[in-house]
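thought: fold this chain, then report.
action: predict
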Amino acid sequence: MPTEKTLFQKIADREIPSNFEYEDDLCFAIRDIDPQAPTHVLVIPKVPIIRIGKAKLDHQSLLGHLLLTASKVADKLELAAGYRIVINNGPHGGEAVPHLHVHLLGGRQMAWPPG
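observation:
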């Protein structure tokens, strides 16, 4: 695990100000600074997991919590028409911050295939 705090850890610790869409003991949700849809929120665990490919069995309940939280945030943001959940893994997967996070995208028709 990196010794320096990630950007997301600094936000969780209130070292970098941010507007929280949601927060509980395990995770928080913030708007993406470079939105790829009218609604683009990141659901971020407070425990730093580098990426989904590095998650361990003991992260299983936290990973499920992140997905359920994304759904809860989607309801709050009135994305009933539909939304997409994305988790990037590694540089070729589009990962920009080495701290697992779930992208919640909505507010427009999503294209397929993505990317």
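thought: worth noting. The domain at 7-106 is CATH 3.30.428.10 (HIT family, subunit A).
final: tokens above.
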